[in-house]
Amino acid sequence: MASRFACAIHIGLLVSSFLTGGCASSLYGWQARTNSTAFAPGVQVATIQQVPIGIFPAVTIVGLRGNEVAISHFLAEILGKVAPHWKVVSPQEIIAQINRRELAQDYMRMRADYDASNMFDVVPLRKIAEAVGVRYVFQPRLAAFSQLMTDRWTFPGFGVLLSQTRSSNMRLMIQLWDAETGEVVWGSLVETTMQNEAVSQDPVYLEDITRATMGSVVSDLLNGRRSSKYTPVNKFLDDLITESMPQETPDDSHPARKDNP
User: 3.20.20.140, 3.40.1360.10, 1.10.10.60, 3.40.50.10610: which CATH number matches 38-244?
Assistant: First the structure.
């Protein structure tokens, strides 16, 4: 019995080595579908990049509260990589400035109204934007997020797990508001699915699918694309995911990529 079990473990290791070897640049297979609007009349990328742009903390539905906290942070990080000349005010700085100017109650009421109606009242929006020194603001909304782990291959008779399918799905909406006029000047809805097969118990992490999702949105924004499809074939977006993964033996010999999406 012991020898049979040892044989099963040996075969499991061989299969694991096969499954995890020879991977592409990303450990994941993923796909993002975007449906983005055109810019409002008189507004274009060249217009918004000349003035400070703020990023409000993301909102979400009750069942997903807590998952949205880092969404806006990743948007700020990606914009910093692909559009370093933009004057982006991070969500952390937005909140700090709101508190310094004692506008927390105004912001919370405005946020609650937006959460219920998907619309900002222009009066508090303009007041807060002027206080923190921005003209435009991004408002992300996390509409759906799920993580699944399914046993795929087990060794018959021993219950030895050889492979597990891990997947995650995300639906996110983002709007760009003109705080002076109260107009939505651009928006996008993006749905992303990400999956891989492995023997580890790790899920597809929220950070990784968020990077692919936000990277696809920013690519639409900068390039004027609509109804786009992004996959690991887009090397820059795939690298955003790969770069976020902890490495056991970091290699600093390769500089960060500077490509635009």
Answer: 3.40.50.10610
